[in-house]
């Protein structure tokens, strides 16, 4: 094992956990890092390896937020179960179908998200009930299926898409959206991690130290987000979305 490579990957994983805990999108840091550092391994194996640190970080974020933010318990449990199943299906599909077409589609969606968030100053600043309980249940479960599959099949930006969905479709503020997003993301990461473990596609010599680093970053990121509140998260969200757009655009034109 190359300890220098492990050290570098742990550094990226720490930053990924920190960013992911604040607004999601840690995979945009962690995934390119491992793909670049370990090009001798198949892509599904490297994606599977990142799911272990992603799971540890999302569990830490979920724990930190749930201690301070009320969770819609009667709907979030079934949503997590649906997201788990959808993520497993997405991971299975990844081992059989290329996912290159996802990047241009995600780029278009993210540009729309950035423009909307930038122009709507009160976006995610307060919680407001905009849907009935029945609509809330349906929307949360559909989100679980759609975004869960996306996470298993492609992944980058999943946390941000979950936060966006909870704000626009359910009416949560950033903090409450983050609390629910971390629970769902933990479920999707667990499904993918279990799938790739079953397939023998996890490099534990890299995955385990990266998991410790990611968890540490998630602890600090969640505490900072809770301390600073919605306005801080909104700014961080815009910066992350802009960085993601530039990253995807660069990948497409190079």
TrEMBL record:
<dbReference type="InterPro" id="IPR052017">
    <property type="entry name" value="TSUP"/>
</dbReference>
<keyword id="KW-1133">Transmembrane helix</keyword>
<dbReference type="GO" id="GO:0005886">
    <property type="term" value="C:plasma membrane"/>
</dbReference>
<dbReference type="InterPro" id="IPR002781">
    <property type="entry name" value="TM_pro_TauE-like"/>
</dbReference>
<protein>
    <recommendedName>
        <fullName>Probable membrane transporter protein</fullName>
    </recommendedName>
</protein>
<feature type="transmembrane region" description="Helical">
    <location>
        <begin position="6"/>
        <end position="29"/>
    </location>
</feature>
<feature type="transmembrane region" description="Helical">
    <location>
        <begin position="69"/>
        <end position="89"/>
    </location>
</feature>
<feature type="transmembrane region" description="Helical">
    <location>
        <begin position="204"/>
        <end position="226"/>
    </location>
</feature>
<feature type="transmembrane region" description="Helical">
    <location>
        <begin position="140"/>
        <end position="167"/>
    </location>
</feature>
<keyword id="KW-0813">Transport</keyword>
<feature type="transmembrane region" description="Helical">
    <location>
        <begin position="232"/>
        <end position="250"/>
    </location>
</feature>
<dbReference type="Pfam" id="PF01925">
    <property type="entry name" value="TauE"/>
</dbReference>
<comment type="similarity">
    <text>Belongs to the 4-toluene sulfonate uptake permease (TSUP) (TC 2.A.102) family.</text>
</comment>
<keyword id="KW-1003">Cell membrane</keyword>
<feature type="transmembrane region" description="Helical">
    <location>
        <begin position="101"/>
        <end position="119"/>
    </location>
</feature>
<keyword id="KW-0472">Membrane</keyword>
<keyword id="KW-0812">Transmembrane</keyword>
